[in-house]
Automatic annotation (TrEMBL):
Gene3D superfamilies: 3.40.50.1360, Winged helix-like DNA-binding domain superfamily/Winged helix DNA-binding domain. It comes from the Bacteria. Keywords: DNA-binding, Transcription, Transcription regulation. It comes from Arcanobacterium phocae. This is Deoxyribonucleoside regulator. Pfam families: HTH_23, Sugar-bind.
Length: 344
């Protein structure tokens, strides 16, 4: 990608970027011409005739334009622009933002990919100089980190709010979710370095009073932005079974809880399922989460719908990224479909 400022030429659903300040090579110019013709509706054979080159050359020119970052293809899915559904989510739950996604494929990986891309765009648009970003690492947050574009900021900290139950162990040589978030904003990062669940309240008190853990928890309390997902009991069953919780606690979680919000297990009504466990849990509390200025929940899938709804109803979210089906389940199916083209 070239440096310097950019202008854009817009064709239907495609944007061609070319630098203003830096010179273009003859191949760059030819590849831009080929791309504009191709994305205006001509096939490669027709582009070849217009440019007086062979069809294989057109294919190479299009590949060159893509590799140089001249082409950005946007698929405008009307389902993700459902104005009435977004408005109903915002009205009912007092949301500042409701972003809808519609994964191209079924399955958890496709869902995380769609959520991660949209979540990264939202998070990136909100971070400003001097911010503290609180993060609960998880598979979803790892995908958000993958899609974050570099946006250097001054004096930004990324703080671990709690240990997510589904936080994947980083591959050798690959930075952690926390580190990748920090890298996107040229920020410092601080992990919690403490277990999520402890055996007793006195032990939790001792752990949270150690200097490092206390500093990280205090910074998390004062973070302007919190970014997290929620976990559902069914998907996380193996992780819960492998946790140090007692058999009795696991039975209550499996029978009463719809999932966890920042490692706090709640029922369908948003109530804490195990008060004693809640008192032995290290990390941000739900009342602390509720008081954040920016509370960004990135979560979707029918299996998470009930815990997403519980988070919404109890004020733990003011910016939501979810999928269309989950959104419709939450608000009910009586909201008519409307997107921008409906105005015409």
């Amino acid at each position: 990608m070239y440096g310097g400022k950019h202008r854009s030429i817009v064709l239907p659903a495609v944007v061609f970027y070319y630098p203003v300040m830096n010179p273009l090579s003859s191949r760059d110019i030819q590849s831009l011409d080929a791309a504009k013709l191709y994305y205006s509706g001509l096939n490669q054979e027709q582009v070849a005739q217009r440019l007086h080159v062979s069809r294989p050359t057109v294919s190479k020119l299009l590949a060159h334009a893509n590799a140089q970052g001249f082409i950005e293809v946007r698929v405008l899915d009307p389902r993700e622009q459902d104005e009435l559904l977004v408005a109903e989510l915002q009205r009912r739950y007092h949301l500042l933002d409701a972003v809808l996604v519609s994964p191209a494929r079924s399955g958890a990986d496709a869902m995380r990919d769609a959520l991660g891309r949209a979540g990264a765009h939202l998070v990136g648009s909100l971070v400003r100089d001097g911010d503290t970003i609180g993060l609960v690492p998880s598979r979803t947050m790892s995908t958000v980190a993958d899609y974050l574009e570099p946006r250097p900021r001054r004096n930004v900290d990324v703080i671990q709010l709690s240990c997510g139950l589904s936080d994947p162990a980083p591959r050798p040589g690959r930075p952690s979710t926390l580190e990748r978030f920090a890298a996107a904003f040229s920020a410092r990062c601080y992990d919690l370095s403490a277990p999520t669940f402890l055996a007793s309240v006195p032990l939790r008190t001792r752990v949270t009073q150690t200097p490092h853990v206390r500093r990280v928890l205090d910074a998390g309390v004062h973070a302007r932005i919190a970014v997290y997902t929620v976990g559902d009991v069914r998907t996380n069953r193996e992780l819960i079974n492998a946790s140090p919780l007692s058999l009795h606690e696991k039975e209550i979680i499996f029978s009463r809880s719809v999932g966890d919000i920042c490692a706090r297990f709640v029922d369908r009504e948003g109530r804490i399922c195990l008060p004693d466990l809640n008192n032995r849990t290290v990390g941000i509390t739900l009342p602390q989460l509720r008081h954040k200025e920016q509370k960004i929940l990135v979560a979707g899938g029918t299996e998470k719908a009930d815990v997403v709804k519980a988070a919404l109803e109890h004020g733990y979210v003011n910016r939501l990224v979810t999928d269309v089906h989950t959104a419709r389940y939450i608000v009910g199916t009586n909201v008519p479909f409307k997107h921008e083209r409906s105005k015409k």
